[in-house]
Amino acid sequence: MPPITTLLFDCDNTLVLSETLAFEACAELANEILESQGKSDRYTGHALFTEFVGQNFRGMMTSLQQKYSLDLPPAEFDKYVTREEDQVIKKINAALEPCMGADTELERLAASGRFEMAVVSSSAGRRVEASVDKVGMDKYFPRSRIFSAATSLEKPTSKPDPAIYLHACKVIGKQPGECVAIEDSKNGTLSAVRAGIRTVGYVGSYEPEKQDEMKSVLKEAGADPIMVDWAEFAACLDKIEKS
Known about the structure:
Elements: E1 6-9, H1 19-36, H2 45-52, H3 57-68, H4 74-95, H5 102-112, E2 116-121, H6 125-134, E3 146-148, H7 163-172, E4 179-183, H8 186-194, E5 198-202, H9 208-221, E6 226-227, H10 233-242
Parallel strand pairs: 1-2, 1-4, 2-3, 4-5, 5-6
Helix pairs in contact: 1-2, 1-4, 4-6, 8-9
């Protein structure tokens, strides 16, 4: 295998604790849509997270349209996507925090000068930019190194589609084999693995009672090794480099 030159980080619940905030906003809009279409079901943020973790709002709403046979014209669909971005960014600016230990590890990696680093996310570019800005990670990830499946591609998509990872590699000028991804979800892991990228699984953002289950989920999706704490990342990277 070629030497590792590039680290590709998922954002939500990998670098920053944004999923709870985001799914609260998603649930508010999903319930508004269901009510407007005469559907009686309602979602909590937690229920949406359980069913759709790793997907962006566009992918989530596409799934809900199919599940409930919703009639949302493309223009109306796009308006909801924009509203979701606005509401999530508002919550991010008010309350977002980094994942424990992530900033310390990014600082160490940046100081080493060994790797190029980028963010590869399903979330909208504006949301990812707001996230890294809020927690001060913009010094590691300039705008040219933030890639969004929702907004960076000619045709918007969502993980587990590998398109956004392949796009990021192309723009940065790297082969998938010289990259390592860090992912916390099944869909994210599948996206990276299907792009031919070795992947470290991260379960530290899950509740302790959920971590063992998620280790199995990520391992089955192709992540290896898997870490609970960012302090383990150096050892995980060393394992991959020696494999």
